[in-house]
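User:
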Amino acid sequence: MADGNGVPEKVAWVLVRDDRVLVTRSHGRDLFHLPGGHRGGLTPSREIAEKAWLCYSDRDRVSAVDEMAFDALHEAGRIS
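Assistant: Predicted structure:
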């Protein structure tokens, strides 16, 4: 689904515990992502190959968009 400007709309679920962020990796992908998907239809669990709890030092293991989320969480003192 896209907004009126053709920009895809996505939703993500950010769960932080013990200075780590829950992330998932889909089958055939190298990078992890925050759980979520297109608005109106979250990614089904059958598409998730792996779940992991990553800290800020693992930032290079997530997608470019999620790197920004990791930066914001780190700046806010939520992850270290």
